[in-house]
Amino acid sequence: MSFNPIVIIGGEPQSVFIEILLKSIKRKHLPIILISSEDILIKNIKKFNFKTKFNYLNKDLTNLSKNKINLVNINYNKFSFLKKKITTESNNFINLSFKKALEVISKIKCSGLINGPISKKTFLKGKFKGITEFLAKKTNSDEPVMLIYNQNLSVCPLTTHLPISKVSGKVKKKLIINKVKKINFFYKNILKISPKIAVTGLNPHCESFDKDNKEKKEIIPAIKYLKKIRIDVEGPYSPDTIFLRENTKRFDVIVGMYHDQVLGPMKTLYGFKAINITIGLPFIRISPDHGPNIQMLGKNKSDPSSLLESIRFLKKYAH
Questions:
Q1: Does one domain contain both 24 and 130?
Q2: Where is pLDDT greater, at 47 or 187?
Q3: Global pTM?
Q4: Residue 157 in 3-state DSSP?
Q5: Are 129 and 194 in the same domain?
Q6: Rounded to whole angstroms, how far apart are CA atoms 307 and 242?
Q7: I need a surface site. Which of 9, 75, 79, 155 has the fewest CB within 10 A?
Q8: Strand runs (DSSP E) across 62-123, as ranges?
Q9: In contact, 32 and 58? CB cutoff 8 Å
Q10: Do 118 and 193 share a domain, yes or no?
Q11: Do 45 and 179 fall within a single domain?
């Protein structure tokens, strides 16, 4: 076996992910353990005329195949294939898929976890901001970090999936320090790079004339502390200029204060050539940077680039 198997969760049944997975899998990407529905897998294989073979994995995982997709079958018969909407009826299926994946990871040495997209509105229902926080709860992990990664530049939002009106109250010195330290550790220990990290301000041009000036009270003190412990960090930078080419060439990571402050520019620059990595779990977790995209379901037109980037990353860096 050239590398340990990658565990892949199919995610939302009414999504393009299984189509994308079957487009992506080449012999060099195996072994893979897929947590999904046999029914959905077979129907995709037949509909799109794929020639992929799969192996039913037994409970003790002793029959792992190096040359096929190893399937942990999650029964799913409530929906017909290619249904036109996503509902909460798939929640038990998704919950069980994550549970089985965590069981597999606890039993066998794996390269990491890739999960297909889910609908935050129907699956998480406000209980968690995203799968990052959902997995943190399931694994008793503290303050995980969302890193949108590309080998040329990565970004991290300090706060994730929050209404903009609530962001300011969450911008704290301690949170900035903890997240930058985890990013620095990840780059040094997994990627073997000493990263250069930029931190943005919260307000336009990093200026605020309010009494609660986040740049002065939280962001600048956090940067000063990080410099004292010899982390290569600079800022705060104005978000309207940090993504100019001459600036992005200087840094490996840009840490922003909220979700769209850094994810919008990142997707503009790299499209599907970026992946969502969760730092701070007991394993490397990656989510391809796209949603269920139900509008494209069954059309065989979905781009597999982000999933391919996810697999390549684990092949290169996972141990």
A1: yes
A2: 187
A3: 0.87
A4: strand
A5: no
A6: 28
A7: 75
A8: 69-73, 112-115
A9: no
A10: no
A11: no
What backbone torsions phi and psi does residue 30 show, to the nearest 5 degrees? -80, 160
**C-alpha 17, offset from chain centre:** 14
Q: How far apart are CA 112 and CA 105, in angstroms?
A: 8
Q: Which of 287, 269, 283 is nearest to 20 (CA)?
A: 287
Q: Are residues 166 and 226 in the same domain?
A: yes
Edge to edge, the sheet with strand 69-73 lists 54-56, 69-73, 32-36, 6-9, 112-115, 285-288, 275-279, 145-149, 154-157, 253-256, 197-200, 233-237
Between 288 and 250, the more confident residue is 250
Asked whether residue 224 falls in the same domain as residue 295, the answer is: no
pLDDT for 294 equals 65
Phi, psi (deg, nearest 5) at residue 47: -60, -45
Tell me, what amino acid is at 112? Answer: G
Residues 37, 170: Cα–Cα separation, whole Å: 39
Instruction: Name which of 89, 9, 12 is nearest 293 in CA terms.
Output: 12
Total domains present in the chain = 2
Joined together, the tokens standing for residue 125 give: 């229902």
**Three-state secondary structure call for residue 237:** strand
Residues 130 and 156 in one domain: no
